[in-house]
Write a structure and sequence with these properties.
4 helices; 7% helix; binds copper (II) ion
């Protein structure tokens, strides 16, 4: 990725406005007519036969002797997407940024340089680390041209799994993440899980205009949550990958899209889900498909069966703002988007030797039998008349985000039960920083297994109940909708976890 001038960087926002005014499909990136395009594709369409580039993996940086020191430079630059040059944002010139591989007990030191034309910062999504100081502190602000040294100390018992990093500066999170600022973090398994190969698949989406410049989001897209025209795997349009017949691969998949839900299928192959987010199932589950809300990760075991296959995202209805006063009609509807081909898989050769046994995992901690010290309700709502511009307001318990206010004060070491109620006609995926949530009830039905996630989808006009153990750390952080446009529009609250034994005021 070649650096581009500050002047070019400054025009990125302006071009978004141009996109709003013109909005015609004719201006859009021509690659949308090729592989990976978001839109309805007839079954068996010619796109399915087009070979893409071979799947690349992001660069990897691995800890040694308990330490990983990394410099991340967030900046605009040029990348190749679908054989054409595009201007996006990126960390260290990559799309995605480098994959950071660490272990429980490690120290991860990240020096972040802000090469953008606006403020930024960094969030390590899902990591169970301190929210204070120069750790996973969402209130840090880094001015253009400045640097900040983050340091994350992973506890010795940190859950293995796939995590990720991205900016978290309120108001511009959706713009910066959709522009290309994201990367994966792997916390390695203490005992390796046998697989012929492990792949990290970072799925993202973005919109480019005909000159290969990032398109901005219209007001309606900011209300609904923008979905990019192009859906990328590791920054590539419909890459190709090969597996030997009978081999078992481990795919770690993260949905870094700002608003797009990924209902993933790989028809014809054998899929087992090892876990979601930081939650590992005691025994892998045989699955036909996996639904990832924005921010969610899947740990998937793929056993190749003879033949070809396509990794697809099939339609998922996350609701719409249509009918909420009419203002957001038109673009607000969009629940019926068709299937998107993400990657092609070619299976070659005859069956190989016996598959490695699927190791049983440690029995996950279960909060269903825990003593609950507080019960709270959080209501996620959308309504006209709120927002800075008097547009649609996105609220939690009737309030929009205010970084200077504490919304929820919690006693450290306690277990709380939160009822998440969504009164709006769209899904909202709730993300709580630092402490994972265990889903105990969905839509009025008790969950009969341990389901631990850090992004929990709350479907439209529905309720979900979670339990949270506030252990390990204290301090102030946030919970928010992970449709990042909704977060930028106010659907976020501040939580302060106080040391155990200290009275709450
Ligand atoms: Cu939302």
């Amino acid at each position: 990725m070649k650096p581009i001038s500050r002047r070019a960087a400054l025009t990125l926002g302006g071009l978004g406005l141009a996109g709003t005014a013109i909005g015609g499909a004719g201006l859009l990136w021509s690659a949308q007519d090729g592989p990976g395009r978001a839109g309805v594709q007839p079954a068996g369409s010619a796109f399915g036969a087009l070979p893409g580039d071979t799947l690349r993996e992001p660069a990897e940086l691995r800890s040694a002797n308990g330490l990983l020191e990394v410099t991340l430079d967030a900046a605009p630059g040029r990348v190749d997407i679908g054989g054409r040059s595009a201007t996006t944002l990126g960390y260290n010139g990559g799309l995605p940024g480098p994959t950071l591989r660490v272990r429980a007990g490690d120290r991860l030191a990240v020096s972040l340089h802000n090469g953008l034309a606006e403020r930024t910062n960094l969030h390590v999504h899902g990591l169970h680390v301190s929210p204070e100081g120069n750790s996973d502190n969402p209130f840090v602000m880094i001015e253009p041209g400045d640097s900040f040294d983050y340091e994350y100390r992973l506890p010795a018992d940190h859950s293995p799994g796939l995590y990720w990093y991205h900016p978290h500066h309120h108001g511009v999170v959706a713009d910066q993440v959709s522009g290309g600022l994201y990367g994966a973090i792997v916390v390695e398994d203490p005992d390796p899980i046998p697989a012929a190969r492990e792949r990290v698949l970072v799925i993202s989406d973005l919109t480019l205009d005909s000159s290969g410049t990032l398109g901005g989001a219209t007001a309606a897209e900011r209300m609904r949550g923008r979905e990019g025209e192009l859906v990328l795997v590791n920054g590539q349009l419909k890459p190709a990958l090969g597996i030997r017949s009978g081999e078992r691969e481990r795919w770690r998949i993260v949905n870094t899209c700002v608003a797009r839900y990924l209902r993933l299928r790989l028809d014809g192959q054998d899929l087992h889900l090892l876990g979601l987010d930081s939650g590992r199932f005691e025994a892998p589950k045989s699955v036909e498909e996996v639904l990832l809300a924005p921010g969610n990760r899947a740990d998937l075991w793929v056993t190749a069966v003879q033949g070809a296959a396509v990794l697809r995202a099939v339609a998922y209805d996350r609701g719409s703002t249509a009918g909420m006063g009419g203002m957001m009609g038109g673009n607000g509807a969009g629940a019926t988007e068709g299937t998107i081909d993400l990657a092609t898989v070619t299976v070659t050769g005859a069956g190989v030797a016996a598959l490695p046994a699927i190791p049983r995992q440690p029995k996950p901690a279960d909060l269903r039998g825990a003593t609950v010290t507080a019960r709270r309700e959080f209501v996620f709502a959308m309504g006209m008349g709120g927002g800075m511009g008097g547009g649609m307001g996105f609220t939690i318990n009737g309030r929009e985000f205010d970084g200077g206010r504490v919304d929820t004060t919690v006693q450290g070491d306690s277990v709380e039960e939160w009822t998440l109620t969504n009164t709006s006609p769209m899904d909202h995926p709730l993300h709580l920083h630092v402490w994972p949530m265990q889903v105990v009830n969905q839509g009025g039905r008790a969950v009969d297994s341990v389901l631990r996630q850090d992004v929990v989808n709350v479907p439209a006009r529905s309720a979900v109940r979670v339990r949270i153990a506030f252990t390990g750390f204290t301090g102030k952080t946030v919970y928010h909708c992970h449709i990042l446009d909704h977060e930028d529009n106010g659907m976020m609250g501040v939580i302060d976890v106080r040391p155990a034994g200290q009275p709450l005021t």
